[in-house]
Protein: proton-translocating NAD(P)(+) transhydrogenase
Organism: Thalassotalea fonticola
Amino acid sequence: QIFAFPKEIITGEKRCALLPANVKAYKLSGARVLVESGLGESIHVSDEEYSAAGAEVITNRAELLTSAEVIISVHKLPLNELTLLKDSAKTLISFLDPFNDASYLQELQKNNITSISMEMLPRISRCQKMDALSSQASLAGYVMTMKAASKLPSILPMMMTPSGTLKPAKVFVIGAGVAGLQAIATAKRLGASVTAFDTRSVVAEQVQSLGGKFLEIDLGETGETSQGYAKALTTVQMEIQRQAQAKCIADSDIVITTAQLFGRKPPVLISEGTIALMKPGSVIVDMAAESGGNVQGSVAGEETVCHGVTVIGQGNWSNYVAKDASQMYANNIQHFISDIWCKENKALNIDLSGEVLSACVITHQGKIVSEMLLSLQK
Ligand code: NAD
């Protein structure tokens, strides 16, 4: 089968879905690998390195897309390029953001494209090595903490010297999933005093094992979905949470919010009134800003100041460490491909009865086949 790796064309995106080491693995399994010229230039990987590993470097993007059978990228291909793939039963693999773009899904169906969404891989042990949401979220947790620390007009660790003593900074992390746990670990390594909260109480132990304190809030029944994601809180529970965490927020130098609800808008957890309680010069990072925000008034992609508090709404955090992010993503993809690769046919085996593909194939043979999306459309 012929794989193609086009350049990412979203402004500012530096990551890519393939490194030279992956080319070798794909070639060994019997695939042909085409890459768009300049694929790795943002992370200092040259076309020559891809060629030396066995890839064919192609300059004409349309030629690359039309000659491949499987197209692999970080972000989904732009809508206007889908018609180039018309009627040739191609497979697209990338982050697809399937819940938020119905017209894109229609275009995939119309052009008979098999689309695979990396964010829909099941969060089961077998898929850990393919879990691109987790690899990118861990890097995000690290980068957000570093960014917040760099904005703070003080340091994170306690400093006791003959010339003076400083108390450790206080960091509060809301949402202790993959990104939140990495934010906690990073802030601890930098010497901060860290507290965290998550509606999934099972997380308390994980927070404590990283040296953080878990803020206890009695919300009554919360729970998880069958895929292990947090369930949405009721309006009453949300208000209890907002009030119970206000003091901790007011005392914190840095607040990092990472709360998400799978397939839904993230909850708004910090009001402007609570921001006003924080010390001027404090920093909030709203990881959810791009999808609606955990923080009232945060602006996607921007840094704003509210009551003297810097509110960072930038997103795509792993892109700041694009080299590591590309390596992790490219390896996740490679493990995924090898999981669904048929050695005899030297091609992907799109068998929708399996646990993995039944979860992450979105469109196939002109139809939406994802049970989760179909159930949401009802
Ligand atoms: P996510 O990005 O969907 O959400 C981030 C966190 O926000 C979650 O921990 C969630 O509980 C929390 N949250 C939601 N509402 C909140 C609120 N009101 N207040 C505070 N926190 C709130 O989560 P994720 O990091 O992608 O992880 C999702 C699940 O998948 C978790 O259970 C995680 O442990 C699990 N997981 C499993 C594997 C595996 O291979 N077994 C791998 C990665 C993640």
